[in-house]
Amino acid sequence: MVMRTSPDGIVEWISPSLAKAVGRSPEELTGTRSLDLAHPVEGAPE
Questions:
Q1: Segment-wise mean pLDDT, segments of 10 residues, the chain, 46 residues
Q2: Are the CB atoms for 35 and 43 separated by under 8 Å?
Q3: Which of 14, 22, 23, 40 could bridge 3 with an S-S bond, Cβ 3.0-4.6 Å?
């Protein structure tokens, strides 16, 4: 499972297996914030 993001965390490319794991298509996820894919607790700033 691989994804490429821009320096500001925007998904530029996501592998089909990762997209499938989160239940969405790669096209739906491209352009979204990578932190939006994280569990709320895991993505929370400290």
A1: 93 94 93 85 62
A2: yes
A3: 14
Are the beta carbons of 17 and 42 closer than 8 angstroms? no
Distances (CA, A) of 10 to 31, 46: 6, 21
Tokens standing for residue 30: 């491209």
d(Cα 43, Cα 12) in Å, to the nearest integer? Answer: 19
Q: Which letter does DSSP use for residue 40 in this model?
A: H
Domain extent listing, the chain: 3-43
Q: Give residue 20's pLDDT.
A: 93
On whether the pTM is more than 0.85, the answer is no
